[in-house]
Amino acid sequence: MDYSDENAHVNVAPPDKEKIKKLWTVAAILGIVTAIEFVIAFTIDAGATKTFIFVALTIVKAGYIVLEFMHLKYEAKILYWSILIPMIFVVWMLVAFVYEGMAIADVR
Amino acid sequence: MASSTSAVASGKSAWDGGVSPMGASYGKLMMWFFLLSDAFTFSALLITYGLVRSSHQAYTGAVEDFVFSQNYWPIPERVFEAVPFLHGVELPLVFVGIMTFILIMSSVTMVLAVEAGHRMDRKAVEKWMLWTILGGVAFLACQAWEWAHFIHGAETGKAVVEGTTFFWCNPCSQPIWPARFRSLFLFYHGLSWFPRI
Hints:
The complex is a heterodimer of chains A (about 110) and B (about 200). Helices cover about 80% and strands about 0% of the residues of chain A. Chain A is built from 4 helices and no strands. Chain A has helices spanning about 5-10, 15-45, 50-70, 75-105. The termini of chain A are far apart. In chain A, about 5% of the residues are buried. Chain B has a two-stranded antiparallel sheet. Chain B has 5 helices and 2 strands. Chain B is mainly α and about 200 residues long. Chain B starts with about 25 loop residues before the first helix and ends with a helix. In chain B, a hairpin with a 5-residue loop joins strand 1 (about 160) and strand 2. The chains are: A mainly alpha (about 110), B mainly alpha (about 200). Chains A and B meet through helix 2, helix 3 and helix 4 of A and helix 1 and helix 3 of B.
């Protein structure tokens, strides 16, 4: 199998400046959110508030990665909801079980 | 059977075939299948950790006064304070920040590779994929170092029972029990990275 002549026939399109700029913008947003999280780690006292902020910011970052980098925002809506709704259920489960854990701690 | 329903005016009905469900290719749909099932698997581990963690005492008090103990969970500032090549220096959460940065950058390079792929730019795809792989390997190496470090402990040892110190890991009285739980979790997470890379 000789792959070398395949290159001769492929037309390479020039880079799309707009798309690349958008990707780096999202990367910058992710970087900034991470930096904010870092600052919060050292300034706010440990406790429920801090944890809640971290979880919220992490969901924001994960959202950006899934929607933009994995292109989910631009897919057919049915696919978008097929991914999103189960994940919302999972987050609900996490919240519910942490709450349960706190109740268990009280009983101890 | 006579084709009684042959009066299809124009356009394709989805039932005629040749149409991709949701407009996404097979590869893309299967990738989402994998991602979602993977998310469920790790959510299960995470939710268990959340339950165990919230059902035991957390440490309340100043960061400076923290002492490792069996009575409460350790605080992240003291658990994640090691940095490779800086032996004995306590830099809370610095290594975590470095690893997060590597991770985010590798996902950026991955998406740039995909973008180059759309344009049929083979050289650019190779370049960005190599950077992505490098980022993935670097992150895994960091995780491996971190995990090994958790197991063998730092030079000064960690307090086990109040007042005593151990220099090497004793599985029965390991103070960072949650770290053990986390290690298991991380091990599977790290293992799942190899096929991804």
